[in-house]
Amino acid sequence: MSRARIFGRATALAFAFSATVMPASAWEPTGDVEILVTVGPGTSPDQLARQFQSIWRKQGTVKNNVIVTNKPGGGGAVGLGYLNNSHAGSGENLAIAGASMVSNKLAGRSPIGCDEVTPIGHVFAEYIGVAVHPDSPIKDANDLLARLKADPQSLSIGIATSRGNSNHQAIALPAKLAGVDVSKLKTVVFQAGSEARTAVMGKHVDVVPASVGSLAKQVEAGQLRLLAISAPERMTGSVADVPTWKELGFDAVVSNWRGLIGPKDMPPEAVTYWEGVVEATMQDPDFKKSADAAFQTAKLMKHDEFAAYCKEEEKSLDLILGDMGIGTN
To answer: What family, per the record (predicted)?
Structure first.
């Protein structure tokens, strides 16, 4: 065999081998990346979006320009409608999602829930504390439930920012398990968490359920007293002495979770890319420090697990919202 034929055959074999074993180029964004926030600037979801933006820039994880866009309104319907109607199938358009996406769909405020988006990564769980004024006659969590069972209208409950959300669920679920008619609970809705906290500190409402992180400073300053927390196990730090509903005998774990989603029909290769980005983000020291300071429990769930979790949340919330007298789909 001539040297030319040997060389030619060797070259062909080498090319065939390299084409088989060399992986295809990984998917990456080709233009600006947008993180949509369905509520206003300064809110917890907005802070998370801007933290992602900052960490991605610092890490160099995402080399493209990252833009944060706020589109509040309609219980998330405005922003999520924009995501799906304008960017279905896009790999560059993302959104911060939370438990409110599920409850708002079930309550009829938004047509978009788990099935209408592409879950990418669950980031953290934010558990809810139930707080009262330090001078409140309500002695503890069991006393709270006893009063509500005797008369569901006897106590006013400050809810931010809508009935049926995680804050509302975190008091309704243990109350239901204690035999309270939760459809009769006396709720006062506030437009911001700060307003609800101020109301209970001023004794304008009797009880406020809110994220532990948002209550911690007032609890530490002696301005509020925590009765129970909706976590699966006791939390640490300044709230370590506060019991969970679960240890009090009520299986009432409620999480105002946060995660990253994409529009419907996001390409699978884009989902894989963003899964990796979320995982790298959660390993960043600044992310961990921020989560700890805010009493957020970091927990990574990638696409498949996150999608299944979202659907389970939908099933369980459908039941409690119905008991609360809030229309479900």
So the answer is: Belongs to the UPF0065 (bug) family.
What pLDDT digit, counting tens, does each position of 289-318 carry?
A: 999 999 999 999 999 999 999 999 999 999
Any idea how long the chain is?
Answer: 329
pTM of the model: 0.86
Which stretch of DSSP H or E encloses residue 119?
strand 118-126
Q: Please report how many Cα atoms fall inside a 13 Å half-sphere around the Cα of residue 33, on the Cβ side.
A: 25
The tokens describing 16, both together, are 């065939």
- 22, HSE (Cβ side, Cα atoms, 13 Å): 7
C-alpha angle 69-75-77 in degrees, rounded to nearest 5: 65
Judge whether 133 and 224 are in contact, CB under 8 Å: yes
Evaluate whether 122 touches 187 at the Cβ level (below 8 Å).
no
Q: Of the candidates 65, 10, 1, which has an alpha carbon nearest to the alpha carbon of residue 33? A: 65
Would you call 253 helix, strand, or coil by DSSP? Answer: coil
Largest Cα span, the chain: 100
CATH number of 33-126+256-323: 3.40.190.150
Kindly report the CATH class assigned to 129-239: alpha beta
**Using CB atoms within 10 A of its CB, is residue 42 exposed (0-12), middle (13-18) or buried (19+)?**
exposed
Q: How far is CA 77 from CA 38, 101, 105, 229, 254, in A?
A: 8, 9, 9, 30, 23
* Whether 209 contacts 170, CB under 8 Å: yes
pLDDT of 14 over the 70 cut:
no
Neighbouring CB atoms inside 10 A of 316's CB total 14
Tokens 């139930």 -> residue:
130
Could you state, in order of their start, the residue ranges of all structural domains in the chain? 33-126+256-323, 129-239
Same fold for the pair 33-126+256-323 and 129-239: yes
The answer to whether 105 touches 70, Cβ cutoff 8 Å, is no
